[in-house]
Structure formats: structure tokens, C-alpha cells
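Good morning C.,

I know you're traveling, so I'll keep this short. The sequence:
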Amino acid sequence: MNLELLKGKRVAALLSGGVDSSVAVALLVEAGIRPDLWYIQIGPDRDSEEYTCTIEEDLEMARAVAYKYQLSLQVVDLHKDYWEQVVDYTMNRVRQGLTPNPDVMCNRLIKFGVFNDRVGKDYDVIVTGHYATTERDGEGRTWLCTSPDPVKDQTDFLAQLQPWQLQKACFPIGHLRKEEVRAVAEREHLAAARRKDSQGICFLGKIDYNDYIRKFLGEQPGQVIDRKTGRVLGLHRGLWFHTIGQRKGLGFSGGPWYVVEKDMKRNILWVVNGYDPIESYSDHFQIVAPHWLTVDPFEAGLLLQGGDGVENNVTVKIRHTPDFCPARVTRLEDGSLDVHTERPLQGVAPGQFGVLYDLDKHRCYGSGELRLSV
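The C-alpha cells, ready to paste straight into the viewer:
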């Protein structure tokens, strides 16, 4: 997006305290835009002393940006909303044996959802520090497009946005690579210039994910069985502590071991042994209830409806990775998508989001939850 187009518009910038959102603000100011800065407070449960967060450090960095550019900074507390919506979504999916992505839903439900309901409705544009771009086509439609940095590209985290949310979004650093963002931060002497990127799930801070799951769901021991031999290797503490494709943390000798299935009815964790075993790969899965960002590509004629001999070539991601895999997709009668990838993908886990792109890996069509084909 040409930032010059934002002049005269009411702009809200979400500032996390990290280098990416700090540079996004710096680029706005450089273009003559003076946004209002907002820090969204979510964090873990503050009533529990066991759970700590980096909120004070984040806020210190955010205040430094506001002071440097003489911009207003306000804190909006969406802690309750986050826990009622995103945390509930996460726990419900985990309880079902699925692999959820809370950061995807945080963008849709909180950053561009509840925030807009409470604050953003008074602004024309909501700015974030995501590595993504947008563009308009000849018909005036807004498309979510990838960043030139394939490692940092975050379109997969944004692929559940509603069309109106995408139209209101602006990603000033989306055209830059990470090293270029760091260079801008150094040039501007931003406090977060050398701050490490945050890792893990946004609401956990420094909390261990398994400890958090245990707090809500407890433990439910069951057998771990070698799929090839039928040999019982030992016990797991709960299927929700594991995900399809997992290799680390299983704790059995003679490895490596890979998780290939979670049998929720019998409470069995199925694993296979070996380095890169074929059983941990799949080239066929379905995407249920696909959500389209701009238009339904089948209705718009970008993809054909299906039938004998019809092959729709796209690229797909199944997790946050620089890897885009070519695939063929067909729409089934119930609206779900049948996907055959060009090569087998490791660790296809139900509950993950499958994200569809055009052949050029440029425009993102949308996403939906994965289910393994039977």
C-alpha cells in the first residue's frame, strides 16, 4: 500500500513493543502520517501468580516509540474478550484432539474484531506490523498478498480475516524483508531494534504450552503404540499434549519416533519409528468450511467447480512455513475442498489451517481447517 494514500484518514496503529510494529509506526511518520497508537492488553490470567507475561517490557518499548514521535499511546484491555473467544476456541479444539492455531483467530477475533468494535470503528485504517501486503485489482477488490520475505510471511495468520477487515487493514512493513526492518529500526534508533522476535502463542508469554494445557484439561494417560509392530512403548499423559508429525518430546528410546495418529475414542497415541518415515507424510486431505478473503474463487471463475478431468492448480500451506506446495483442488458437494499436493507433506494435522494461494504464491484466496481424507 502507498502510505501517501493514508493522508487525511484516521489511522490507528497497533503497537506490541516489538521491532516490527515499531518500524511500521516509523514508516507511517516518515510518510507524514501521525497515527494514534494502541496497545492491546491480553496476556495470561493476572489472578494467578504462577503465570507471568512480558507486558511491562512490551509497554516500555511501546511508550518509547510514542515518546520518540510524540504520538498518543493508549492501552485497551481485551483480556476478558481474548480468554472468552480465543482461549475457549483453543481449549475446545485441543480437547477434540485437533491442532488449533490461536494466533490465526487472535487476528480475526481480537486485533481486527473486538478492537474494531471498541476502538477501531472510529478509524478508517488499522495498522499492524505483519509481514503481508495488500493490493487492489481492476474491479476495486482488495487482495491479501504475500511478503517478499518467505520466511517471515504472515499471510497464513491473516487468512481468516473477514473481507471488511482486510479492506481496513494496512501493513507498512509488508514489502520489506526482516533484515531491512531491522535496518530501519537501527537507523531510527528504536528501542526495539535489537529485541528478539517473540516466539510461541501470543497469550502465553513465557508460559510452557503443555503446562497451560494441563491447567485446563488435566491428564488422561493412555497407551503409546508402534503402528508397524503393534508393540506398546509406554504411556502418554494425554493426547492433547501431542500433535500429528511431532518428533521431539516423546521420551522413548530407539528413536526418532513420530506421532502419526491420535485415536480419541480409544485414547491411543500411534507412532512410527525411523528417520523421515513415509507414514508421517500425506499428499491428500480436505479443507472444511473454506473461508474466502476477497471472493469465492470458484464463483468468480478463478477456479473451476470440479468434475471429471478438472484440475485446479494452486499452492497451499498447512502451517507457518516458507514452503508453498503446488496442489490440485476440487470443490466437493458439501462445499469442502479435496486437496492433492504435488509432493507428500509431513505432519498434516486435523485442526490446522490449510491456506490456499494462486500459482504465483502471491494472492491468498483463503483458508479452512484440515481434515484427513478417508
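Safe travels,
E.
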